[in-house]
Write a structure and sequence with these properties.
The structure is a single chain. The chain is mainly alpha-helical. It has one domain. The protein is 76% helix and 0% strand. It is built from four helices and no strands.
Length: 88
C-alpha cells in the first residue's frame, strides 16, 4: 500500500477487501490518499488480487449475496405494497 496512508487506514482497507466490500475500500483509499476514482479503483483491484494470492483463507464468503437478498426482499415488498395502495 501507499506509504502516506496510516497503518489504521491500511488495516481498514484490507479488512474491507477481505469482507468483499470493495466500494468501502475504494472510499477509504480515496479519502486517505487523495487519488481519483479510477486510480483508487485500479489500486484496490490490484491489492485485492495480491491479498487473494497471499491469504485466500481470510476472504469471507456469502456476505455480498446475503445483503443483496435482503435488499431485494425489501424492494419487492415495497413494490407490492405500492401497487396494492395504488389499485385500492
Amino acid at each position: 500500500m501507499s506509504a502516506d496512508i496510516s497503518p489504521e487506514v491500511k488495516t481498514q482497507i484490507a479488512d474491507a477487501i477481505f469482507a468483499q466490500r470493495k466500494i468501502e475500500a475504494i472510499k477509504l483509499y480515496r479519502d486517505a490518499s487523495g487519488q481519483g476514482l479510477k486510480e483508487a479503483k485500479d489500486f484496490i483491484e490490484s491489492l485485492t488480487t495480491e491479498l487473494q494470492e497471499k491469504s485466500p483463507e481470510k476472504f469471507t464468503s456469502g456476505s455480498a449475496s446475503a445483503s443483496g437478498c435482503g435488499s431485494s426482499a425489501v424492494l419487492l415488498i415495497s413494490v407490492v405494497g405500492a401497487i396494492g395502495y395504488w389499485i385500492a
